[in-house]
Task: structure prediction
Amino acid sequence: MKHTLAFLLIAFAVSCAKAQEQSIKQIDARLARYLNRIICLDRCQNCDTTGVDYSDSIQHVNDQLYAYMRKVFEANPATLTADFKHAKKNGLDYVTSEDGNLRFYDWDMETGGTMHFFMDVAEYKTDAGVKVVAKYDGETGFNGCYYHQHPGIAAIHAKDKTVYVTTFGSIGSNQDEAMGIAAYALENNTLIRVPFFRVKKKLKDHIDLGYNRFAGTYGNDLDNEPEIHLSGDKQKLYIPIKNKNDGLTKRFTIYEFDGESYVLVKGSR
Result:
């Protein structure tokens, strides 16, 4: 009897695991279909010669995608650390915190021209499960941002909390772009922005930098242009310095973590 019960419990656990795995696969496939629909509509918009305006249709699919993410992600906490392989291929990007408590998603909504409009979504762990919210908080203006895979979302252990730090980019036109770094915390089951960077004696919750990507020291070698980044041990933060033409140079302003925030190192410019 005991052996039978043990076998049933194991079979039930395996069945649940398979069901969850299948559920993630189904979610991945559905996300990929929405994203593919956005891409197809954008191509129709660019190729159509009859004057048909597809913009409302593209926006509608973006709205459907976000609504679907909220519905299924909050019902399935495993999505917080799942790998959505098919959705990735169709343009969904995401970065996850090292402790698995927070994830940011982004995708190009294909509603712009040379300016790219990104949809940003946050998914995070609460005492009652997973919560999903559209993440717009103004650090890159009204057109949203994409998140850098490195460092992804770094978990910094400050004096009284864990602060999540991520770097991001924004595309304003063929030449005008922006980059930045922002800090967040999970408090009372809510994702909030937290002041974490000491700039000119003031604590800010983000640092951003607009620049002309064709006016920098790196010339046309855009794949190797400098980025905002943390040192391997997360103790130093490097912010690229611009030249008089708003291009990026090979020099950095350096901030050092003092246990509570990142503080400008004097003379680092």
Remarks:
- The chain has three helices and 17 strands.
- Residues 1-91 form one domain.
- The two ends are 74 Å apart (CA to CA).
- Helices lie at 2-47, 55-75, 85-89.
